TrEMBL record:
Belongs to the PSMG2 family. One of its GO terms (biological process) is proteasome assembly. This is Proteasome assembly chaperone 2. It is found in: Nucleus. One of its GO terms (cellular component) is nucleus.
Length: 244
């Protein structure tokens, strides 16, 4: 199961858009929950006028059996105080559906990094103990950097370290709950700032592809991802004439 966190810059959601669009994944259902702000819109992955008027809602499920891949796309923010109920419902569904593992795409505020996190790549990963035993070696082969823990009381004591993901939305809660419940989960995240986060999405989805090889890696893997039609309306572009 591949899914985004609703986090800074919506980077995970944009990366999921690229995966669904490029792999031409089939919508197989909806994830019904009262924890997300209700919304409805046109098909974000429309390829022709015939399918452009299909409706999409706030949480939908896509599938690609040939790669044993299921994707949950989330398109609206969480209602206040609904993080925990959502995580409980999601992990219950993961268990009942017998998902082998979960990959969560997320992001975190770049300006809140500590000194150690400023070094090197802006990409980080986390693995639950149950997944660490299976793929930890592969992450080391890829020279990936694990998300560092930071001082719980900076400037006072540097001995107590905690996992801190500012701007990460449900990321920390979902990860810690997965650790407690023995669910195999990987978190892939990028430090970023709000703005035009399309470049961040390409960086994050390429990071994911290094591991899972969803598409063939070439000299410029970014050119292999298919941008969904809905992205034409991002960041202040004009409305399509058909709406007038």
């Amino acid at each position: 199961l591949l899914q985004p966190a609703v986090s800074v810059g919506n980077v995970g959601q944009l990366a999921i858009d690229l995966v669904i669009s490029t792999l031409d994944m089939t919508k197989v259902g909806y994830f019904y929950t009262d924890c997300l702000v209700p919304m409805v819109g046109n098909n974000p992955y429309a390829t022709a006028e015939e399918n452009s008027m299909e409706l999409s809602i706030n949480a939908e499920v896509y599938s690609l059996p040939s790669k044993k891949l299921v994707v949950l796309q989330i398109r609206s923010p969480f209602i206040k105080n609904k993080y925990r109920p959502f995580c409980e419902t999601l992990l219950s569904w993961v268990k009942s559906s017998k998902c082998a593992r979960v990959v969560l795409l997320s992001s975190s505020h770049a300006y809140q990094r500590d000194d150690e996190q400023l070094l090197g790549t802006p990409l980080r990963y986390l693995l639950t103990p149950d997944l660490e035993t299976e793929v930890g070696g592969r992450m080391k082969e890829l020279n990936w950097k694990e998300m560092e823990k930071v001082a719980a009381y900076p400037g006072i004591s540097n001995t107590d370290k905690v996992l801190h993901i500012p701007g990460g939305g449900i990321t920390k809660l979902l990860f810690t709950e997965s650790c407690s419940e023995g669910i195999q989960m990987a978190v892939l995240l990028k430090f970023c700032s709000e703005g035009d986060n399309i470049p961040d999405a390409f960086v994050l989805v390429n990071y994911l592809n290094e591991w899972l090889q969803l598409i063939k890696s070439e000299v410029n893997p970014s050119s292999q991802w298919k941008v969904p039609s809905s992205w034409r309306l991002l960041f202040g572009n004009g409305l399509p004439p058909a709406l007038f």
